[in-house]
Amino acid sequence: MVEAWYMDESQEDQRAPHRQRPNRAVSLEQLRRLGVVYRRLDADNYETDPCLKEIRRAENYSWMDIVTIHKDKLPNYEEKIKTFYEEHLHLDDEIRYILEGSGYFDVRDQEDKWIRISMEKGDMITLPAGIYHRFTLDENNYVKAMRLFVGEPVWTAYNRPADDFPARKQYMKFLDEEAH
């Protein structure tokens, strides 16, 4: 089961857990109110998993690939790791399914505080278009993940500030509606 918590303010190694003391856990319901959708799937059988097939059909995830993030597998590894960790948003949902390994997705809450979401094998997450977020490996330094898209993939990340994009405005409206 996925675990999430509010991050401390430390600028130390981004791969460390960065839990506040005492730990301030974040529930799946709190993530849902931010528009973050979490699912648990059978990563050992992702090629034939009927649940994944149904999710892809229902959500119209027509395109997918698999990426391995490890220093021996990803060209320009150090540069990519830094890029993934820059705070950004996308104009489309970001869908990631962890097939092996582990890492962290960090998202901003309604008060602009960082929440760290620990992802491991079997975890699928959907981050809504317009949410500020970032990704990093954890201390294991390895993840193999499926990337899913509606239609052709769009890889463009817009670093903060990107508040003028319609996707960001729509996301902020969603947060406002969730609050009331």
Describe the structure.
By secondary structure, the chain is α+β, with helices and mostly antiparallel strands. It has a single domain, classed as Jelly Rolls (Sandwich). Helix content is 22%, strand content 33%. It has 4 helices and 11 strands; from the N terminus they run E-E-H-E-H-E-H-E-E-E-E-E-E-E-H. It has helices spanning 28-33, 50-59, 77-85, 166-179; strands at residues 3-6, 25-26, 37-40, 63-69, 88-89, 94-108, 114-120, 123-127, 133-137, 143-149, 158-159. Strands 1, 2, 3, 4, 6, 7, 8, 9 and 10 form a 9-stranded antiparallel beta sheet that branches. Strand 6 (94-108) and strand 7 (114-120) form a beta hairpin. The chain starts with a strand and ends with a helix. The mean pLDDT is 97.
